[in-house]
Design brief:
Elements (H helix, E strand, L loop, with lengths): L6 E6 L2 H13 L5 E6 L22 E7 L4 H8 L13
Antiparallel strand pairs: 1-3, 2-3
Amino acid sequence: MFLKKKTAVYLSSDESDYNLAKEILDKEHIRYYEFVSEEMPVLGCGARINPARFDNHIERMIFRLSVVPEDVESAVSVLQGNVKFVLTGSPH
């Protein structure tokens, strides 16, 4: 699966919703690729320092689930109505 093209079907910053989406895909036996990263701040300096993270009060994580193109329709139909942030036409 790692060498195949993948399409993002889920994108969120809500970790509990992300875990629910993974559980649903697991239950339906749909293989997925998960990607978690920290949102890059929009600042003018080259240091990419996010001032909101200094006190560790704000965590800006981005959670993404991708599937192979053959599973996109089934993954979207299973996730819609069950989780908040389903991507239906993502080019990635």
